[in-house]
C-alpha cells in the first residue's frame, strides 16, 4: 500500500441508510426483503478467510525475488485453481525504484467465463520489503509479513472463490491478485524521482497488458488493508472521482446488510493505489475499499509498513464484514 496523498474532499455524502442495531449480520443465510424476497446469498466465512491469510503469512514476507515469494505465489495459483473455471498466470518483469529487476506474477481466476458482463475483484499478494514506518529505525530495512497490507484482501478473495465454485452469480467474475504493489520508494530513500510510479507495478502492467485481449469489465473493486479489528472504510477520493456510482452502491449494500459501522458514509483521503492506475490506463471504473484512520500520522492502519503488520492483528469478524458485502454486491448483479 502506497503513500497517502491527503486531499480534502468536497463531494456530497450520500444519504445515510439505517443499519442493524449491532452492526453485525448473523452467521447464517439471510433472505433479502428489500428488493427480491427469493434471493439467497452464500454465507461468507470470516474464519475460512482468516485461514487463508494465515497460510500466506506462514511463508514469511512475500518479497519479490525471494524463495518465500515463489512459494506463496505457487500456493495461490494452486488454491485458485481448485475453485476457478480458468486461471491465468501473467508473468512479467519490472524495474524497481532502485533499478532492481523484479520478477512479477499476476494471478487471475475467472468464473462464468462465457458471460460478457463481468466484474473484477482485486488485491495485491506481495508484501513490503521495508518496515520503513516502524518506530524502531533498526527495522526500517527489514521486510514485513503484510498480514493486513496484502494478505487480508487476498484471503477474502480466496474465500469468495470457494463460494463461487458452489454457487455462481448471473455475471462473470474475475479475481485478480496483483504482484509488485508494495516495492515503492521507502521513506529513508533520498531519491524521490518518479516515486508515484514506483508503486503498484503489477496493476500498472495488467492495466496496460490485460490477461485477455480487449478484456473489459463493468467495474472493479480493490481490497487493501481490510482485516484489522474494528476497521473503518471511508469513501476514498479517487474512487469517488472515477466511480462514484459504484462506491454508493457498495456502501448502500453494506449499510442495508448491517455493516454500516465498517463502511462509513464519510469522505476519505486520496490513495495512490492499484485502482488509480486501472482507472487511468484500463479505463475500467474501479474503487478501493481501504482502511482510513484519521487518528494516525499516516492516515492508514496503525501498523501500516511496520513489523507489527502480522497475523496477531487480523480479525475474522472484519474479514467477514467485507467479504459478505462483496458477496451481496456481486449476487445482486443481473
How is this structure best described in words?
The protein has 334 residues and is α/β, with parallel strands linked by helices. Helix content is 31%, strand content 17%. The protein has eight helices and ten strands. A six-stranded mixed beta sheet has the order 2-3-5-4-6-10, sandwiched between helices. A two-stranded antiparallel ribbon has the order 1-9. Strands 7-8 form a two-stranded parallel ribbon. The protein is globular. About 9% of the residues have low confidence.
**DSSP strand count:** 10
Distance between the termini: 32 Å
Mean pLDDT: 90
Q: Report the order of strands and helices.
A: EHHEEEHEHEEHHEEHEH
In percent, how much strand structure appears in the residues? 15-25%
Give the strand order of the largest sheet, numbering strands 1, 2, ... along the chain. Answer: 2-3-5-4-6-10
For the CA atoms, what is the radius of gyration?
Answer: 18 Å
Number of helical runs? Answer: 8
- Determine the fraction of residues in helical runs and give it as a percent range: 25-40%
Low-confidence stretches: 5-35
Note the overall shape: globular
Summarize the main sheet. Answer: 6 strands, mixed
